Amino acid sequence: MMKRFWLQLKGMGIMFILPILGYLLFIPFCVMILNRNVEEAEQRFLTAQHMCHQFIPILSTIWMYMFQKEYVEGEGREILILGRKFPLFSFIYWILNLPFIWTALHILKDTEGYREDLFCEMLIASFMICGLVFFLNFAISSIALSILLVVLYIWLSNVDIENILVFRDGLQDVQQASQYLYVVLRGRPVERTGGGIYSHGSAVLAVWPD
Question: Contact 102/128 with Cβ under 8 angstroms?
Answer without folding.
Answer: no
